[in-house]
Amino acid sequence: MEVLLIGAGKVGANLAEELIDAGEDVIIIEQNPEILQNLDHLDCTKIEGMPIDIDVLESAGIRSVDAVACVSDNENMNVMAGQLIKNIYDKEKVIVKIENPANESMYQAMGLQTVCTTSMIIGAVLQNLDYVISSDITSVLGHPIKYDLRQLTEAWEGVTVNTLEHELGVHLLAVVKGNKIALVGRDYTLSANESVIVVSLPEVEKAD
């Protein structure tokens, strides 16, 4: 697979190294020459230039690449480059790194696949606190749908499903106890030794 990376900062450089080690062909576009000089150890094609310049993209072989990952430190640049590549070259797999989770659904509606570093950090911290065990976001009709498996804390002991849904702005799909999954009604009383599978719309979910 041939992968074009936009940006060669810490994320781009480490991603390039992983892809090269996996046997993929990597092309990097980076506008900062000093950053490129630090990548001499990487066995890949490196191009200095603006990623929103058509001539630069053409020189990188944009027409033949299989996937594009816009992972610079500038969210606006990532989105502009991603949109340009998506619209002009009709690439199916265009991934953009963003910082603001509030923009995620808008970019996904443009056909861009997003990776939000802020959401990832929050999710990792909550997971390490044993609050969110796992999380996944899918897209339905261009809108992001978020699924969470959450471990209930003592604060939710004795609370009904109806109350939890109202407080968190989510819809409870099932209750998990041990290795068993159960469908329950909205009047079901929750226990702190249970986990719950909930679904929500990220842009309207209330703060926990």
Automatic annotation (TrEMBL):
GO biological process terms, semicolon-separated: potassium ion transport
Superkingdom of source: Bacteria
Record-annotated membrane-spanning stretches: none
Residue ranges annotated for the RCK N-terminal domain, each copy included: 1-119
Protein name: RCK N-terminal domain-containing protein
Lineage: Bacteria, Bacillati, Bacillota, Clostridia, Eubacteriales
Organism: Fastidiosipila sanguinis
Coiled-coil boundaries: none
InterPro entries: NAD(P)-bd_dom_sf (IPR036291), RCK_N (IPR003148), Trk_Ktr_HKT_K-transport (IPR050721)
